[in-house]
Amino acid sequence: MFDNTLHHLCSALAARIDIFCSNNRNVCRFNSHIAVLQDNAGQMCVELVVLMPIILVVILISYNVGMYCNLCSRFDRCAREAILVQGVAPAGEQSAQHACEEIQNQLQASMDTELCDIEVQNDALHADPSRPLSYAVSPLLTRYTCTMKYKPWPSSFVCAGVAFSPQAYVEHKKFLVVDRFRAGVLV
User: Fold this and answer.
1) Is the pLDDT assigned to residue 9 strictly greater than 60?
2) Residue 113's domain spans which residues?
3) What predicted TM-score, i.e. pTM, was given to this entire model?
């Protein structure tokens, strides 16, 4: 019944268009437009097949950018907190190396993901001997550098000839200078 109604509606529309076109000087035929539309019936399917690999790669890139931004935001907050808690006065042995290990352990527990690797380094800041008027404000000023290396997912992907293989790592660093053993002193 629906096919009959649709057929009658199309026939009536074709008749109206034929009448409209025959009254004008420009000659057009409705049936010729239907033939052109029928020739392009599979065009959308072909376009979808061609564009699907590109769409998948764009989706993977968008996913990885979103995850990287999310992890960077979390890393910035957690790194600052870990440096202030463990870098100033680490639990256990009171050495710079032990403080780096404690900061790294706390960051890994806070991040709780396998998509990134975390490294922590420290540098003692001293007075510059080449400058005659420089002096150390505090002999225990330490710069902690926390580095997050994000591994994009998947590491390689090929779909219909379109290859997606991002870099091995994308790095994000956070620096903070503290005075060791003097809580609350930031430089």
Assistant:
1) no
2) 43-179
3) 0.64
